[in-house]
Amino acid sequence: MRLKIGLIGGAFMLLAAGAAHAEDVDCDNAQTQSDMTSCAQARYEEADKALNAQYKQTRAAMVAIDGDLDGDMKGAEQALLKAQRAWISYRDAQCENYGFQARGGTMEPMLVAGCLADLTDLRTKELKELANGMGQ
């Protein structure tokens, strides 16, 4: 278990260190593995910002729904929180698994970051659709 935590922690430290480097890289024409990893991490960070902004909007929609319901009918906000926590666990495990395509190699952090970005983009879209369905 410690090895797993150490490997995951190490991969994310590499991703974090590379993020600052991405500002200096043309991500449309990244040439080195380090550059590609930095660009993937930067893309994930942008996706995460968008997700957090959308989550706030969707949560507000769920709070509004709860406000219109009586007693034991409430629970939209709690259901969203439960779903989001489950989704985070799924995303992290799925992307860790995805990284095994290049386990221990220099591509692993890039694969993980790309997976995180892709799944985060999809979740943002889901949250937006949910909020729009609630009249937001």
Rounded mean pLDDT score: 89
Helicity range of the residues?
over 70%
Structural category is mainly alpha
Annotation field: number of helices? 4
Number of E-type strands:
0
Describe the structure in brief.
Helices cover 79% and strands 0% of the residues.
Supply database-style keywords.
single chain, 136 residues, mainly alpha, Substrate Binding Domain Of Dnak, Chain:A, Domain 2, 0% strand
Overview of this structure, please?
With 136 residues, the protein is mostly helical. It has one domain: Substrate Binding Domain Of Dnak, Chain:A, Domain 2 (Up-down Bundle). It is 79% helix and 0% strand. It has helices at 2-22, 33-68, 76-99, 108-133. It is elongated, with a radius of gyration of 18 Å. The chain starts with a helix and ends with a helix. The mean pLDDT is 89.
Layout: helices, strands, pairs:
Layout: H1 2-22, H2 33-68, H3 76-99, H4 108-133
Helix pairs in contact: 1-2, 1-4, 2-3, 2-4, 3-4
